[in-house]
Amino acid sequence: MAEQVNQVPGAPQVPSPDAAKDRRNVPPRLSVDNQPTLEENFDGERARPYDEDCGFEIEENFQRFNACNDTFARAQWDENVRSEKAINWFKSMFTQGLGVRKTEGYTAKDFAARNAAWVGANLLIERKLREDRHDGFLDDLSPYAPPAAEKVPVEDPAEMSLELKQVSKIFGADIIGVTATDLRWHYTNRFNARTLSEKENVECEDLPHCIVIGTEMPGKVIQTMPSALGGTAAGFGYSKDGLCLISIAQFIRNMGYRAVASLNDTAQCIPYAIQAGLAEYGRHGLAITPQYGPRLRFGKIFTDMPLAHDGPAKFGVKEFCDICQKCADACPPQAIPHGEPDGAQHNQSNFVGIKKWNVDGEKCFKFWANQGTECGICIRVCPYNKLPETRRGKIYFALWKKLAGGPFRRFALWLDTALGYGKRFKPSWWWTNRPGW
DSSP letter string over 173-192? Predict the structure, then answer.
């Protein structure tokens, strides 16, 4: 099999000298003229009892998503998204000097920090490249060891869920919830970065439970976004999330049960986080949590370990986002919608058949590629993104959330603006004032 040499999720692949030997077995390459396979009709249960509590509005034309249509995948096979700047964005994560310029926040020092933050995630990817896998981004996280031969009996699923959450805190989970596996959110097919083709997704039908974990991204550097320095938040978030997931999954296997750990692969994270009671859906297309706002990375583990489920929980995000336009106003490429949730189909990177705020992934990623690093402005300006470090700050944020979740939400929005939250700090502020996390 041709060896994959690049180390970044979704990076363009350079074939090995013996690649010609594999050519007969290579599936058809995706292109504008050879599009990914679409699912005409979802043959599973289209509506679930908990949809209303989650805020899901599933329409008659609902289709599951093909991961090959993800914007990051399309940047490799679709000439409408692929460009030299897009390819350099991928390469910059492991190529010293690429993207570096004199502009504050994009210096060699800033990229050194950003790329170091990605090391943990890149190590997870690298370990199975010879087997044609991109662990955590295009493929599920490969298990360290198989399940134990004998299962440890679980007499009380509710107690087991509490014990699982307890041990998960040791492994780095900041928040954790459990819900039912819901195949509506699973990709129909995966993307193969080496052959630029489709491949089958992992089977999860016989794993009835989904554990959702969230890990906080460093908040202070997010205040410098967009910048290469700010990109350390996403990189370290993925690195931390990946280690957390493989540790929890191995704990489950050590108990004798099956566990499929998934980062950005296999299925969508956000609907699972909502179902598990960890978050609500925001205008910017991100999951907003009560504790950290949108400043998290999510992952999930599918398992047959007997567990009790958590239910969805609302704290007023939808109603607040209805009147708040901060992320849409601040988005440089205007990729975030201003109006009501309508499930608009900007391009093939959007879900079909779900009435929600849809971000234009093409516009968003093009801005990333032009910047040479991640953006994150929508996270920075989100009123739910606060860092209450002092006792007074924690009291304020708790009171603010009550205002935002009730009839005084307009006052909460005014207050957020009046107090100057969401403003960008220069990267030099972070380096010289040393505010920490």
Answer: -SEEEEEE--GGGB-SEEEE
